Amino acid sequence: MTEPEGFEALLAVASDTATEATLVVTGAGVSLASGIPTFRGTDPGAVWANEVMSKGTYSFFKQAPHESWRMYLQRFEVARGAKPNAAHFALEEWERLLERQGRTFLLVTQNVDSLHEQAGSRALVKVHGSLDQARCIQRGCVYGPPRGTLPLAEVDFGPFHASPSPETVPRCPRCRCRLRPHILWFDELYTEHESYDIERVLQRASRSQLVVFVGTSFSVGVTARVSTLALKRGARVFSIDPSGLRPARGIEVVAERAEVLLPRLVSALQG
Where do the catalytic residues lie (predicted)? Predict the structure, then answer.
């Protein structure tokens, strides 16, 4: 089987024992094969066309909290029925391989589904939050920022499902303020919540010898910040994406789907 251009270079860097720290950043493309639509992708279900830029904001939540919750509960239902694909399992295998070798691995995902966790990934940062969590809007509340959340499964949506309205939006069990999805919205900062762990991500970007982006359109802030830090340090930076587009100078592209390429890469690393 002929490997795509860039594969051998990626394999060489990943297998080099001098590569002590590897950072992988995944985007929506890694979950597409699991049936979860992308945002900016070209797949028919890409949700960017559905006004997510205007509705995926805290401003919209304040204006129409019931509509905001309805949109995210629909996304949660799609994500809840999805299962990890070969890309998710390969990343978990890569993590375990490097752990056995005494090397460092960190997986940073922009995705809010739980597929990486289902696949077994442990060295994981969910930099945009998680669809299976909610949080209070009141800063300082035990269930609110800077560090509080509660599982979505513990939230009573009965009244909301019966009659969606601002009045039936679920309330915090501690302070009775409204609950919101634990998601980083487009008009918010990464420093909004400690679980986004942005400082850890940026520190690792500046210390890793290898940075691999998987299935991301490079359309959000964390990708630019991570790639800039890594390239400045002199790290090798790769993008695995079927489009084959080079997102920035210095980033090496491997044009293949994540669920196809990652299992082959990890298999080759295992020898």
Answer: 128 (proton acceptor)
- Structure token pair of residue 228: 């800039």
CATH fold, domain 1-35+84-128+196-271, is Rossmann fold (3.40.50)
Contact 179, 155 (CB under 8 A): yes
| Nearest CA among 192, 180, 188 for reference residue 65 | 180
Across the beta sheet with 179-183, what order do the strands follow? 150-151, 129-136, 179-183
What's the average pLDDT block by block, 10 residues per block, for the chain (271 residues)? Answer: 92 97 97 83 47 85 97 92 97 98 98 97 98 97 98 97 98 98 96 97 98 91 95 97 92 97 98 84
- 270, 97 Cβ separation under 8 angstroms: yes
Which pLDDT does position 39 carry in this prediction?
57
Query: Could you say which of 128, 161, 182, 193 is catalytic?
Result: 128
Known active-site residue 193: no
Q: Topology of 37-81+129-183 in CATH? A: SIR2/SIRT2 'Small Domain' (3.30.1600)
DSSP 8-state code for residue 49: G
Q: Residues annotated in the binding site for Zn(2+), as ranges?
A: 136, 141, 172, 175
